Amino acid sequence: MQPLLSKNNPRIKELAELKKHPSPSAFLIEGYHMVEMALEAGLLDEVYALKDPKLKDIPFTQISEAVLAKLSSTKTPEGIIGLAHIRLGLEPNPKKILLLDRLQDPGNVGTLTRSALAFGVDNIIFLNGTASPLKEKTLMASQGAIFKIHMANMNEEEALDYISSSSLPFIATCLKGATSLEETDLPSSFILGLGNEGQGMSEPLINASTLKIKIPIRGIDSLNVASSGAIMLYLLCRRENHE
């Protein structure tokens, strides 16, 4: 393809718009690690870079430094931008699911996506009001985990219907009426719900839970949701992680 050297090129303007308004069918990623993760998952569609990365069967377009600066979100970009997509939908009969209820911080959402994949949970339900997994800050925090995760977007009513129809126990993280992790026989298959940074999980979701758990802490009243989520994911999955 012909080089795109002007940031005013119509195609570059289209890509810049995708940067602001990503969709599951088309969003921008940057850096060699993210591009490689998308390529490995078969979800990389095009590459725009300062030089040819020589990726087999992936269309490449050379761009200028000015174009790179327009499309990049980092101060020191690596020189490569990818156009990618994701597959929406949970696995058939999943055994482990993470449910995120209105988490607003993109860093928390991205970090939890990364932690979920690391500990063997590769299905995530994003409830309405949760930061988009496709936004640049979320993508950066996830470090490409998004390309190996089965994801579904739901509103609360849809999530409650899914929970009630599932054979998996639904674990709510909360303080009121919750049992300490240290005192709980944790299931090996589950739906784990994590709630909004300030308000926690919604009452309807908590009321739909099979089990309510909390992490025993001291010296401070709470943990960051990404930290507490990682602890819970590890403990829930530790049997398999040690095999």
What's the arrangement of secondary structure elements?
Elements: H1 10-20, E1 27-30, H2 32-40, E2 44-49, E3 60-62, H3 65-71, E4 80-84, E5 96-101, H4 106-118, E6 123-127, H5 136-142, E7 150-154, H6 156-165, E8 170-173, E9 179-180, E10 190-195, H7 203-207, E11 211-214, H8 225-241
Parallel strand pairs: 2-3, 5-6, 5-10, 6-7, 8-10, 8-11, 9-11
Antiparallel strand pairs: 1-4, 2-4
Helix pairs in contact: 4-5, 4-8
Describe the 3D structure:
The protein has 243 residues and is α/β, with parallel strands linked by helices. The chain is 33% helix and 21% strand. The protein is built from eight helices and eleven strands. The strands form two sheets. The protein has a seven-stranded parallel sheet, with helices on both faces. A four-stranded mixed sheet has the order 1-4-2-3, with helices on both faces. The protein is elongated and about 60 Å long.
Distance between the termini: 48 Å
Binned, the helix content reads 25-40%
Strand order of the largest sheet: 7-6-5-10-8-11-9
In total, the number of strands is 11
Could you state the order of secondary-structure elements as H and E?
A: HEHEEHEEHEHEHEEEHEH
Contiguous runs where pLDDT drops below 50 for at least 5 residues: none
Rg over C-alpha atoms, rounded to the nearest angstrom: 20 Å
Main sheet characteristics: 7 strands, parallel
Overall, the morphology is elongated
Mean pLDDT: 94
Strand-pairing-aware structural class: alpha/beta
Beta content comes to 15-25%
What's the total helix number?
A: 8
Oligomerization status of the protein chains: single chain
